[in-house]
Amino acid sequence: MRVRFANVTKSYANQRVLDGLTFETDGWLAILGPSGSGKTTVLRLAAGLIVPDGGEVAVDGRVSYVFQEDRLLPWMSALENVALFCELARAKALLDALDLAGEWHKKPPNLSGGQQRRVAIARALAAPFDILLMDEPFKGLDDTLRLRAAALMREIARDACVLLSTHAEADRALCDEEIVLGQSSQP
Fold first, then answer.
1. At 81, is the secondary structure helix, strand, or coil?
2. pLDDT (tens digit, 9 = 90+) per residue, 36-93?
3. pLDDT of residue 168
4. Cβ-contact 70, 78 below 8 angstroms
5. Cβ-Cβ contacts under 8 Å for 173 (sequence gap 6 or more)
6. CB 163, CB 46: distance < 8 Å
7. What is the distance between the alpha carbons of residues 151 and 6, in angstroms, rounded to a whole number?
8. What is the CA radius of gyration of the chain?
9. Is the pLDDT confidence value at 179 over 80?
10. What is the pLDDT of residues 97-151, one digit of tens each?
């Protein structure tokens, strides 16, 4: 389980977002930088959702993703969204660990934004993975819930390769290493 970027470039509508980005990790990596610097692009490239304009992206392992948007299936309950990727008992345990025990039956439109976020986190943790991609995973969570979610992620993904895109200084402490993207996208 490893993620490697070698001289990766990516542009959108003639705007270069990544320019020669190179890094390799098998640990917990924080991806930092201002809005528009390419943090989400790095995760989308690692997930294989987009391809680089140049360079090479190599991902060795099964990927799970906490997207910046929750992307829950609105016609399914919180429990059903998580149980897509695991047995029912594990789905319940993950939701309980994120303080959602009384919300299993609710569909996403009937959950608060923070509840939806925690369901999305539980779903990503329920899927089998070697590599966990997290795009601002704690947005919308208060400090108590953020700490609870971070502890659960650390426990479940302790042996995984993790890429964590964030603006929050507190999230950096979860990671062993970091890269900072800027206008030139060089770490």
1. helix
2. 889 999 999 999 999 999 999 999 999 999 999 989 999 999 999 999 999 999 999 9
3. 79
4. no
5. none
6. yes
7. 31
8. 16
9. yes
10. 999 998 999 999 999 999 999 999 999 999 999 999 999 999 888 889 999 999 9
One-letter identity of residue 81 = N
Helix (H, G, I), strand (E, B), or coil: what is residue 121? helix
Q: Tokens at residue 107, please?
A: 């569909």
pLDDT band at 187 (very low <50, low <70, confident <90, very high): very low
Residue 184 has pLDDT above 50, yes or no: no
Alpha carbons 157 and 143: distance in angstroms, whole number: 20
Q: Which residue has the tokens 């993950």?
A: 94
Range list of β-strands (E), the chain: 2-12, 15-25, 28-32, 54-60, 63-66, 131-135, 161-165, 177-180
Q: Which two tokens stand for residue 135?
A: 């795009």
**Other C-beta atoms lying within 10 Å of the C-beta of residue 69:** 10
Residue ranges and CATH numbers for the domains of the chain are: 1-62+129-138+159-187 (3.40.50.300), 70-128+139-158 (no CATH)
pTM of the model: 0.90
Tell me how far apart the alpha carbons of residues 178 and 36 are, in angstroms, rounded to a whole number.
Answer: 18
Q: How many CB atoms lie within 10 A of CB 134?
A: 26
Strand 15-25: give its sheet, edge to edge: 15-25, 2-12, 54-60
